Amino acid sequence: MTETGRGGVAYANREKAYFDRRGLVRHANAWHLWALGVGAVISGHFSGWNGGLLQGGWGGMLLATLIVGLMYLGLTFAIAEMSPALPHTGGAYSFARTAMGPWGGFLTGLTENVEYVLAPAVIAFFIGSYMTGIFETPEAWQPAWWVGCYLVFVGLNMWGVALSFRVTVLVTLLALACLVVFWISALPNIDFARYALNVGPGGVELPEGNGPLLPNGIMGVFMAMPFAVWLFLAIEQLPLAAEESMDPKRDMPRGIILGFLTLSVSALAVLTLNPAVVGVGSFALGGSGEPLLDGFRAIYGDGLAKVLALVAVMGLVASFHTVVFAQGRQIYSLSRAGYFPTFLSLTHDQRRTPHLAMVFGALVGLGVLGAIWFLAGEDSRGSIIGFTLLNMAVFGAMLSYIMQALSFILLRRNFPQIERPFRNPFGIAGAVVTMTIAAVTLWFQLGDPTYRAGIFGVALWFGVCIAYFALFGRHQLILSPEEEFAVAHGRERRT
């Protein structure tokens, strides 16, 4: 054991064999990373974002999306600077570990862990909702769809990184193609004033439409922000693939910036067209579990709509597959460094994928999903599960964004000597904007009693993990690449 003297942690010695059993394979290029970022988010353009229409109406949701987009602009450019400078699988934990020490790294990793464990559970729920609507299976069968999703896509991610990225590119392109088909189909079938503006003050339906842009005023904009996050959530996962990227110093900035621009165009198109389709409307869409399917139904009728909606499931599948990838790497990195139990970072002998981390994350996600399913009343399962889990994932994400933006600021100020292949043109000001918007989103999440119980559940998970780290983990950390980088540059700064 070697005491570091910072944060009260101690490092346990590990032989080369420890890291040999935890090796990853480099495969990804810039387009793989673009697909990983876009694919992780794209499900939010199929389901989840629409809950904000009842909170703020169409106008409130538009303003919320623009504000949240500004937050992600600052975040993605900050990550575009940090990820090639610290090209390690740990991502957000890695940035914070160098900037704020072991406790800062652990807490940041923990907030991101909540996001990546719960986000696949949200997506699995929406996949089940779509599949139930398409195949008209009983509502009680939804858990079977969830289990099937996890079995198939955890299995594909375990098979090998080459297959995983091929599937990522394929399903991402299919998802984008489906959205383009919807946009083209919707254009001649919209009545914006009648349908998109059919939400009145208090979230009531206006049968004739032509309602106000901001039916609930500026407060509606703030209440819609957690749902607008779903249009961009998880673009920040790209640094988790750093040790599987062929050239992370060149490709990470390209992948994340191009991904953000792609998602911005798609988000504005979905928000403008889906609520305005004749026969749909913002009010009905606000409580829907399958808004894109509702749009297809209104345009083509039930028969053809089901075929198109089956293709639309590709959007959800793209995100599920890619976020399961991120979930496994995120748990793997914290485990390899000793913050989580180290057996979770073992990689498969032949496939070199973190199979145990992915299985553990899947079991936790399914457990949370199942618990809420059985505790929620039968009549309100759809809205409670989908939007409660969504808010729990967003809660973890907002905390992570605050910590990552703070890490960027501290790295700029305290570690100017670190090589930076890409420099964020928005600098510290952009990071401050990101922190401010994330904090506002958190505040309004905490103010909504409907979702407060879920956030308390996240707080309980934090408590359990912090107790584990305080009692056990901090006494047996391991000099993983993230830890070695942080310790070495910490010494440089002190000398």
What's the main sheet like? Answer: 2 strands, antiparallel
Q: Mean pLDDT, as a whole number? A: 90
> How would you name the oligomeric state of the polypeptide chains in this document?
single chain
Instruction: Please tally the helical runs, counting DSSP H or I stretches of 4 or more residues.
Output: 17
How many structural units, i.e. domains?
Answer: 1
What is the name of the CATH superfamily? Amino acid/polyamine transporter I
Supply the CATH architecture: Up-down Bundle
Number of strands: 2
Question: Helix/strand-derived class?
Answer: mainly alpha
Poorly predicted spans: none
Distance from N terminus to C terminus (CA atoms, Å) equals 23 Å
Output the CATH topology: Amino acid/polyamine transporter I
Helix percentage range = 55-70%
CATH class: Mainly Alpha
Radius of gyration: 22 Å
Largest sheet strand order: 1-2
Shape annotation: globular
H-E order: EEHHHHHHHHHHHHHHHHH
| β-strand amount | under 5%
